[in-house]
Design a protein that fits this description.
The protein is mainly α. It has one domain: Helix Hairpins (Orthogonal Bundle), CATH 1.10.287. Helix content is 82%, strand content 0%. It has five helices and no strands. α1 runs antiparallel to α2 and α2 runs antiparallel to α3. The longest helix has 31 residues. It is elongated, with a radius of gyration of 18 Å. The termini are far apart.
């Protein structure tokens, strides 16, 4: 059986990759994907901890289902906002849409 620490290391790496992507990338689609990667890392950690708990219960699985439902709603709203942003600025790059005066002040 795979040790709990391996699951938690993979979950930590996923959350770290998502945080890096959200902090560094300027493309809105990449930021949205990074948020989803972070959510998957948290879900993996919850499932692993629930699996290895001495009193095995379905609390971890129930939380993951809740996280998946919230992530689906989050993604739907973000895609609508992305579409509106693209219609207004004709780009999904955050750096190109912000006027120079606002960015420098």
């Amino acid at each position: 059986m795979i040790p709990l620490s391996w699951y938690l290391v993979v979950a930590f790496v996923l959350v770290g990759m998502g945080a890096y992507g959200m902090a560094v990338k300027r493309n809105l689609i990449r930021i949205l994907v990074s948020a989803e990667i972070m959510g998957n890392g948290v879900s993996l950690a919850l499932i692993a901890v629930a699996l290895y708990s001495p009193t095995y219960s379905f609390t971890g699985q129930a939380l993951v289902i809740l996280i998946i439902a919230i992530a689906a709603a989050h993604t739907a709203i973000a895609m609508v906002l992305l579409l509106l942003y693209h219609r207004r600025y004709r780009t999904v790059d955050l750096g190109k849409a912000i006027p120079k005066e606002v960015a420098t002040s």
